[in-house]
Amino acid sequence: MSQGQWYPPEWPDRIRALAAGELTAVTPRRAATVMLLRDRGPQAPAPGPVVHMLRRRTSMAFAGGAYAYPGGGVDPRDDDRLIGWAGPPLEQWADRLGVATVTEAQAVVCAAVRETFEEAGVLLAGPTATTVVGDTTGDDWEADREALVARDLSFAEFLDRRGLVLRSDLLGAWARWITPEFEPRRYDTWFFVAALPEGQRTRDVSTEADRTVWIAPGEAARRYDAGELLMMPPTVTTLRALAPYRTAAEALEAADVQDMTPVLAQARLEGDELVLTWPGHDEFTKHVPAAGGGGGAA
């Protein structure tokens, strides 16, 4: 078992309660996260892109201390009205994301783009369908970013004010993971991949993170295996999947063939043990005593 895996100490008791019918699963909140990639220069010691990651503050109620990608929940206003849009039509996005309506597809993609701007200062939008904004580090951009974080400004209003269209063609849907039914905070999260636009740079602006880093996906997975970096199963899985690609563009192109079947953890009783599994991802299988105990990193 890998040593950097994040398991909350309350999971065994909650799994037992769910199995006994004493716990009602909460409806997961829609969310999106973006694996933002950047190619390294020709003098890099090894080939392949690096990915932008944040370490969540230890005080966070969900996944405190774990490394993750920029992301967060859907703003209900992302469903309100259609926005300026470039790239594949919303019908195509709805089919790819496995959602029922074009408004829901827009909301998920909006969440991915908005959260990347809120947490990393990178904006996947432009004045036309073939352009993208440049430097977003000015005071006026920062004021808009803070207004989005505070929910004083909707993403649609932000795009309208700036005369921008969302560049959905700069994103590729990569995976979908749903928080286990025994968790009190549940998310139905779509994972996207994107390349850092030319002229933009990431900024350490997230209030939910205490550290940011650009790191090769394979190196991040190796450090997880060594117990040096704490991560949740979907983060580790997507890092391993990104590791073989030689450029950000190559990874983005590969997004179209990634399996978007939702991954949901399952728990069952086997004798005197609780067995926690993620279908299709055996490395995360967890055995905990049915009588109590368990939790923490494993």
From TrEMBL:
InterPro entries, per the entry: NUDIX_hydrolase-like_dom_sf, NUDIX_hydrolase_dom, NUDT19
Superkingdom of origin: Bacteria
Keywords: Hydrolase, Magnesium, Manganese, Metal-binding
Cofactors that this protein relies on: Mn(2+); Mg(2+)
Entry keyword annotation includes Magnesium: yes
Keyword Magnesium appears in the UniProt entry: yes
TM regions (residue ranges): none
One of the record's GO molecular function terms: hydrolase activity
Ranges of residues in domain Nudix hydrolase: 28-237
Name of the featured protein: NUDIX hydrolase
